[in-house]
Amino acid sequence: MPLQSEAALENGLIATLQQMSYEYVQIDEEKNLYSNFKRQLEKHNKKRLEDFGRSAFTEAEFEKILIYLEGGTRFEKAKKLRDLYPLELESGERVWVEFLNRTHWCQNEFQVSNQITVEGRKKCRYDVTILINGLPLVQIELKRRGVELKQAYNQIQRYHKTSFHGLFDYIQLFVISNGVNTRYFANNPNSGYKFTFNWTDAANVPFNDLEKFATIFFDKCTLGKIIGKYIVLHEGDKCLMVLRPYQFYAVEKILDRVVNSNDNGYIWHTTGAGKTLTSFKAAQLVSELDDVDKVMFVVDRHDLDTQTQAEYEAFEPGAVDSTDNTDELVKRLHSNSKIIITTIQKLNAAVSKQWYSSRIEEIRHSRIVMIFDECHRSHFGDCHKNIIKFFDNTQLFGFTGTPIFVENNVDGHTTKEIFGNCLHKYLIKDAIADENVLGFLVEYYHGNEDVDNADNDRMTEIAKFILNNFNKSTFDGEFDALFAVQSVPMLIRYYKIFKSLQPKIRIGAVFTYAANGSQDDALTGMNTGSYVSESTGEADELQAIMNDYNEMYGTSFTTENFRAYYDDINLRMKKKKADMKPLDLCLVVGMFLTGFDSKKLNTLYVDKNMEFHGLLQAFSRTNRVLNEKKRFGKVVCFRDLKSNVDASIKLFSNGNNPEDIVRPPFEDVKKRYQELTADFLQLYPKPSTVDLLQSEKDKKDFILAFRDIIKKHAEIQIYDEFEEDAPDLGMTEQQFMDFRSKYLDIYETFAAGGKQEKPKEYQIPEEEASVVCEDDPLATSDTGLEDIDFCLELLHSDIINVAYILELITDLNPYSTDYPERRQQIIDTMIKDAELRSKAKLIDGFIQKNVDDDRDSFMARKKKADGTSDLEERLNDYITTERTHAINRLAEEEELDSAVLNHYLSEYDYLQKEKPEIIQEALKEKHLGLIKRRKTLTRILDKLRNIIRTFSWE
Description:
alpha/beta, Rossmann fold, globular
């Protein structure tokens, strides 16, 4: 039985939407799109127009609307969609035009169309488009069954570069499906496939099948609500974000409680699942309710207060007011501010101290909704009791990833007793299944039996272990790590031991006094030992650590400006600034073990007693999703915490087995790797076997088979027990690298345009070739390499860049006996990297000219008194010269003016987009036939892309 085609999926989806009362409209091209938009906008604004005795816009008035909508970025257009436009009619009167009804979201005009042709850099036909009030707000990209869903995502990214413009810049959501898997995501180009989501029911059961997804997600009221209420305009990044289903259901539950009852409740969403976005949207929508006077977001520590304020500001500047002190809080409570962020300590002072409470007496009866962050902390003592006693018309909602149950409470109270029933659950097992957070690899280091058990000897052994295995754990420093220890004295001893070992990685440490006590102190040790005591000299020790830090980074921190020091460490651990040297390993006692979110942190070392929520909170610092290479959060325990780990995970997974959360042991992964490699080598005994593959299908089969090995190799190599040269892995590291090279060779040929001719039935008729994109379904064979993801990010290291290569070249000594090997090692390093292999020949030529042919001068430049080198400048000059030579050669080969090629490349450098029309115009002057001109255009563009890949450096 043949596979269901893309056309069949498309027709089935349209039929489903028509059954759901969507109007089907035939829109062939942009001209029809605009005329349909005019009719739908008039229909949507019928009552407004009737107030002026009108039923339609004049052409001149509609042109004003189009001019207004055309201006601005995609982000600014998203704002326009949600605003009213004051249109001046030809009569001089003003009508407020609405593009989207966000308040009554069902009362919009819903249409569906398909195969709309859009003229951009290429003419493209889009699969299925949902129009709301005539604007294309949802674009659906379909792939036939069997095609990897990521290819639909990649095609949308290509559309961003080739054709999306005009009204299509108003797209809010994309949906991708191959019939059996369906995902949605916001119109945020290049955010990554990791930020596409399943839709689920309230119990987190996903709707993957396209028909089921469409029936639920495309319900007109649901879709209208999602676009009208649940897309967030992130002001910090100037991008669109859409809530995931569990966030949607949580906010809906809170809104329902506020509107229909006075009951409290809490949300149990696992750490790392986007609690800030959920709480922001809940606070924002609750604040819009007429009978709610204030929404207060309450946190329990100053650093979380600052962090939350910054995150809220990123969503919507001015939407919230932070409060730096209790006086300021009292003022804000009297102001028009609808949303206030404060700490539980300041709020307690406001209600319990007469000086403050007397000034807010008049608002104690106001209807106030309080949202408590991390409601497993600090809401079980007098502070919480004082607050709810003072405000007698308040409704409480808590957010936590680790609630307090009978098993992990200290004083007998549970989260349910304080906040009422759990309104929505999204547990760590759900988040891992959805790939919204990562699972954990937990390893236990038991030490060397030959080492003396004395404390310092044990600590030295642990420090050496960390340094010896750091690169393996962090992919050669691409990620970073925390080391959590029991107390400040222990941290200081560890720091001195690390320093004595003269590490090649950058190590820092941070500790301070606890801002407030909490039950975590007694139960989990989250803050124990973190008070800096002047009498014990710990402040001096901290300053000594800061001095090392200042020397390492050229900073000037002291204990007097500790907050700035803390913030600087925060930034360096997150590796957010390219010009900022990162911190590789940070020693901590309690700080950074809660509330610290960094995608670049993948490893936690633990020499500290932990259990229950403190343990899971700390472990969860490592499990933020980033890319294919970061497949889990790694935790190395130097204490026997296994029973605590199992108990914690079982408690916060609602009784599920820890095996669902924690990665299998090394032996299990090793066995699977052995099975994969054995099966693979049966098909491809030697790397040279790959050279014999002829058809695109055979090459695709090889890519898929070796890709599985690449993924498992990336997983197994992070285990501490993994040894690169182990004889029992089934495939030696040299074999892996050889096959890896063949894998990349196929990709290079494919990426450079060297695709095989497609079977006749898949070729595009000549008369249609100018109408469809190269990504059109007709243009893709059932066996094409276009259908697969090469997972190149698994084969690239962030640290292998121009600076790293220059450092390796600088270390060369052309007179040394090992020079040929070290020189070849540089080239091999580049060849092994997915992104740099195209530049290996260029660097080889650079070394030939500047080292091989000029040894004395190279060595003399290395010995300059000031320690500087002009090597980077020489490389830049060399790249510029070679690029010019390559352009001139291409111009000569194709008999084109080099100025045309330079114009094309300069436009690409500026826009990061191809503009083939520049080459097309030049080819018209050559008076070639239509077919020959197209083939020539394709050939030249492929060669230009190769120039871009070779000579573009970040």
